[in-house]
Design brief:
six-stranded mixed sheet
Amino acid sequence: MVRHDLPAARDTVVNVFDRDTQPVLTVDPGDSVVVGSLDAAGHLEPMRTPGDPRPMMFADRTGHCLTGPIAVRGAEPGMVLGVRFESVRTGTWGWTLAGVKDTPLTRRLGVADGPASWLLWDIGDGTATNDRGQTVDIAPFLGVVGVPPAEPGPHSTIPPRAGSGGNIDCRELVAGSTLYLPVTVPGALLHLGDGHAAQGNGEVAGTAIECPMTTEVTLHLHRQAPVPGIHAETPEGRVTFGFDEDLNAATADALDAMLAWLRALFDLDRTAALALAGVAVDLRVTQVANDTWGVHAVLPYDAVR
């Protein structure tokens, strides 16, 4: 097994998903990669004051600043890519922004017309403190982990996709987790970025503590997985996902995948699996920030014995 280094540089980052982007690194299954990523906006240095324009990687930002793509030898459509997060380390600064987007939620909350509000964060060992004096615990993870859609052409990094992942924004994907993604194109072409030092379920402000990140991942290929679609094994438990513009559909997709997992684990029929889910499975709104609802279902490892 080999350990690779992939820093964030002008020739190693993109801000769209595209199956035709050439890989910046090719690895073997079982290899690890230490991936550097900028904050979601691609800032090259921290802001000095709220909203202070600073140099950015892309002058014409169209999406998240992502490191990659990383190709995995032997990956073919129909396989599953396992992305294990060995470590996730924040930079020393971050920011949070609210009140800049007109959505049904911001209109309902009365902040759609602004003014925008910034929080600037100093990130230390286990906590972050903002410029207004509040301190929070951190639990870092990457908001965007995904592969390109199978369809040709550039695709936005903003909405999460059931078939390829991307802007999942799931706070459960901390160090020690493994995220399973369907392989959509030869080589898989993994992209990573959008570091979050801390985020609540929902990412209700539209941003988290957006920050640079250094993440070590180990990449594995699997011929099959216990459940279809995107799912994860985290320190807390097994996780399945649903993504849709309709909250009911996203919820049903996350639960449908979890029922398949329960049936495989406990040899249950579908209705019995639903009954058990009603007792042991926790449904959470992953994010509401990206024009697509995210819902994830969590089955703690010790919930059923």
